[in-house]
Amino acid sequence: MTESTTTRTVPPLFAQVATADEAIAHFRGRLAFESDVSDVATALAADEPGFIVVDTRSDASWAQGHVPGALHLPGRRIAQEAPGRIPAGTPVVVYCWGPGCNGATRAALEFALLGHPVKEMLGGFEYWVREGFAYDTADGVMQRPVDALTNVAAAGLGGAQLPTGEVGVISCAC
């Protein structure tokens, strides 16, 4: 009697892969440092969000639009100005333009060096707008239609949405 052995071919993509424990530590760690725009918008809708949102972009970018209630503090000025504008230990969420920019990452480092609990808002202002959230400008509050590529639920393409009573909050379809 012969014994048949089945061998699995490992795809090249998974030739080097973390163990489950390493993956858990890595992804848990990322969630400690990052948030997405939908989660930030949901948290801001609370009566007392418990954190400050900081727009780290230039003056010209700020003037184009920004997250309602955000504090404008360009990245290059954080080390000098943040201690006088944000109480020590206050949790901070930072954002810059979008995923192609690491300005928010640099800003998060500056806030961490100052001792603040800090998270980076992934997607930045670009995805805030693309997901259909209202934003402030010098001309008032603006809001663009939801980009169906970023939020399929709100664009009517299926997925879960938040209960009807939560005005202005769109749930990520993830």
From TrEMBL:
Q: Name the SUPFAM superfamilies on file.
A: Rhodanese/Cell cycle control phosphatase
Give one Pfam family: Rhodanese
Checking InterPro entries in the record gives: GlpE_sulfurtransferase, Rhodanese-like_dom, Rhodanese-like_dom_sf
Residues annotated as domain Rhodanese: 47-137
Q: What is this protein called?
A: Rhodanese-like domain-containing protein
